[in-house]
Amino acid sequence: MLTLYYHPLASYCWKPLIALYEAGTAFTPRLVDLAQPDDAALLERLWPMRLFPVLEDGDTVLPESSIIIEYLDLHHPGPHRLIPADPKAALQVRLWDRFFDMHMESPVQEIVRDALRPESRRDRQTVAEQKEKLDRAYIAAERHLAACDNDSWIAGAFSLADCAAMPALFYAGAIHPFYAHPALSEYFTRLTRRPSAGRVIEGARPWFQYFPFRQGIAAQFLA
Ligand SMILES: N[C@@H](CCC(=O)N[C@@H](CS)C(=O)NCC(=O)O)C(=O)O
């Protein structure tokens, strides 16, 4: 049986959750509360970086959201593969997965980390720079999506890259809206309409109160 060590609010945990829901794969969700010393020690034993998600499958223990999804696609595939068999298409999927992690998730994490510090230790300059990075990422994603077919996902069929895009856009949009980018906004709306995304948002809802930019989350996701 698969076990996913995760937290419902953590954006990187949404990626494998979406993948598991998309494939309809049975798994045991194990919520890790880092405020609890036993849970923190457990996560550290699994992965000394002490970051979730971590997947356990028998003797296999895997960290890193993208690698977990690659593993699931290899060993527990659903009806639709999340990494295409064609190597050229797979390259595009991995490119856009990296894009959302590096150029949206990373700035989001920096901004959230800053907001969680005491007022006296916050750094406006860093936050402004991270928002500039988000602006650049929005332009890059908008340009790419505007050139795609209307019903296409970020790299063709629904994939690993869309699993990465959904949490990145959800949290980035709450902090620094991207309404000015129509193709990106339309893509995000389509992502959130997928049942897998709906389940992830529903699971996170009781925890949104702990997100420092909760006022930026659209009302439809809070109800
Ligand atoms: N590159 C890793 C990033 C994992 C990561 O940053 N996880 C965050 C939650 S979204 C975490 O565990 N934070 C706990 C902490 O910082 O103490 C992945 O893709 O899984």
TrEMBL record:
It comes from the Bacteria. CDD domains: GST_C_family, GST_N_family. Residues 1-80 form the GST N-terminal domain. PROSITE patterns: GST_CTER, GST_NTER. InterPro entries: Glutathione-S-Trfase_C-like, Glutathione-S-Trfase_C_sf, Glutathione_S-Trfase, Glutathione_S-Trfase_N, GST_C, Thioredoxin-like_sf. Residues 86-213 form the GST C-terminal domain. This is Glutathione S-transferase. It comes from Paracoccus kondratievae.
